[in-house]
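Q: What would this complex look like in 3D?
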Amino acid sequence: MCSLDKYLKYKKESLMHLNLIKEEKQMALLELKKVKKIYQQGKIEVPALRGIDLTVEPGEFTTIFGPSGSGKTTLLNMIGCLDTPTEGEIRLNDKKVSDLSRKELAMTRRYNIGFVFQSYNLIPVLTAYENVEFAIRLIDHSSELQIKEKVLKMLAEVGLKGLESRRPNELSGGEKQRVAIARALVKEPKLILADEPTANLDSENAAGVVDIMRKMNKELNTTFIFSTHDPMVMKYANRYINLKDGMITADERRG
Amino acid sequence: MFSFKLGLKNLTRQKRRNALIIFVIAFAFFGYLFMDSVMDGMEEMSFDNIKNYDTGNVQVSYPEYWEDRDKLPLENLIYLNQDIEESIKNMDGVLGVSPELRFKANLNNGIDEVAVLGLGISIEQYNQVFATKNYVVEGSMFAPGESKAVIGVRLAELMDLKVNDYITLLVRTKEDTFNTIDVEIAGLVRAPNPMINNGIVFVPLDLAQQALNVGNGVSLFALKTVSGDEDTVTRALTDSFKNKDLDLKAYSWKESAETIIALSTAKKSGAGVIMSVVLLIGMLGIINNVILSALERTEEIGMMKALGMREWEIVFVFMVEATGIGVLGGLAGCLLGYAGVGWLVKYGWSLGYIGGDGSEYGIPILDRIYGTWNYPAFSFIFILGVIVALLSSILPAYWAAKKDPVKAIYHR
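A: Here is my prediction, written as C-alpha cells for the whole assembly.
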C-alpha cells in the first residue's frame, strides 16, 4: 500500500473515531436490546415490556399493533425518550439513550423525534400556523421569513393551505391531526412516533391522515412508527410488529 | 421568543379567572395607594395644623418651663424686654414672633363651668404667626387694645355662647389666689385644628398678664419661620441665646408634636403591614392561578416536554403569564388608585364617617382628611407587585414543569 493510501486510511479511521463521518454501511436508526419496563403499583410489580429486541432502519413505516394493555404505548414512550427502561438498552442513531439525564432526553426529543398523539395535544390559544411554528422555533433560529416559508409549506403538504390562521377549536378532528403531523414533521426529525393517531377519527379522515404520513415517509424518508388497532390503517405499513403481553410475537416486513 | 408569545397568549385563557385575580390585585393595590395617600395627607395636615394654629414653627422658652409646659405653670416665664424680642425677630429666617401667656382657666357662662386653656396673645403679633384669623366664622378677632375674647365654635355650642355674650374666666394668679377675667366674646372661630375650636379662649395678652399678676411675663414665644428653615433657626437661636448668656432655648415644632410623629411612625409601620397583606393577596392569587392552569394544561405540558422543551423553558411560559397578570393587575390598581387618590386630594375624606373630629383620635384635624399625591408609591407598589407576581409563579411553575412527561401526556 502506498503512503497516500495509508494516510487516507488513517485519516478515515480518525474521523470515524471522532464520529465526524459514519461508516459507509447504513446504521440502524433505532435498536432496542432486551428492553424491559416494570411499573410498581404499591408492592406489586407490573411488567409492561418483557424483553423487547427490535431494530428499525431509516425510512421504515412501521406499525405496532396488539390488544389494549399489550405495551404499545409503553414501547413508543421508551423509543421516544419520554420514559426510560427498567432494564435493557435503547440506541437511537447509534447513541445510547436509555440512561440519559432528563435534560439530555429532552434535547434528544427536541432534535430527533416528532410525536403525534391520539388526542392531538394542540395548544388551543395558538393558530394552526403557530402550533407548527412552536415546534420549529425550538430548534431553528433562521429568519422570520425562512421559518414562515417552512411552516406554510408544511401546512400545505398536509392539506391545510388556507386554514393556517384557524385555532384548533375551528378545525375538524382530521384537520387537527394534520396540524399535529405538520408540527411533528416541520423540524425534519429522524423519527416520528404516532400513538394511535387515527383513534379519534372517522374512517375517511383516518385514511387521509395515514395517506399524509405515508407520503411524508416516502418524500422525506422520515421513519414512522405508529401504534394502532385499526386494520385499515395497518395495511399502509411496510412492517408489522405484533405485541402481546409486553413481548413481540410477530415482526413482519411486506412490500 | 415564542415562549414569551405563548405566555402572553395564555393570558386570554380562563378569562373570568384571570380577570378575577387581576381585579383582586387591582383592588389590593388601590387599597394600599388610597391608605398611603390618607396617611400621608393626615401626616401633612397634622403637621401643618400644629405649626399654623398651635406651636408655630419654633418656640422659645426657658428649659424649665418647657419641661413642665403641659401643666401650664406660671413659673419660669420670660419677662419681655426689647433685647430678647429684637434678637429673635432679627434672626435670619424668622417671619414673625408671637409672645403667648398660657394659663389654666375655667370658663363660666353664668350657669355652667368648663376647664379651658387660656391664651393671652398680642393680636397683631399673633396674626403674623398663626392663621386663626382666617377661620373666624362669626364676629371678628379682637382689635389691639380691646378687652374681648375669641373662642372656638364647639366650645361656644357647648356653653351656649354667642358673639357679644359675656364670659368669665376663673383663673389662679401666680400667687395662687383666684381672679377673674370678664370679657365680651368678639368672635367665634372654626379652625382646621380642633384643639382651637374645643378648648381655647383667646384673650389680650395685657389682660391675661394683669389677671394672673405676672407682670409682663409670657410663657413662650411662638415663631413663624421660612418653610423648611425650622431646624436652622432653632439651632441659630439656641446658639445666639448661649452667646448672650441667656438661659432661653429654641424648640422646633417637632418637639411639641412628638405624639403625632410617633403616631405617624406607627402608621408607616401599619402601611408596611398593609403592603405585605396586599402583596400576599397578589402572591396567593398568582400561585393559585399557576397551579390551576398547570392542572388544566397537563396534557399540554406533556406535549411541550415531548417537543423537547426543557423545564426552565416551560417555567418561563408560566412566568410570563403570571407576570402578565401582575402587570395588568398592577396597572388596573394604579389606575384605580389614581382615581381614588385624585378624589381624596380634591374632596377629602370626612372624619364624620367615623364620627366626630380628629381630636377624638388624637389627630389635630378638624373634619376632613385630604390625601396627598405620592407618585413614588405608585411606581414602588407596581414594580414590587410585578416582581412578587413573577417570583411567586416560579415554584408552582416548576412543579408543573417537573411533571413526568408520560403521566402528563396521558393525563394519568
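A: To summarize the key features: The longest strand of chain A covers residues 44-56. The two ends of chain A are 44 Å apart (CA to CA).
Q: Very helpful, thank you.
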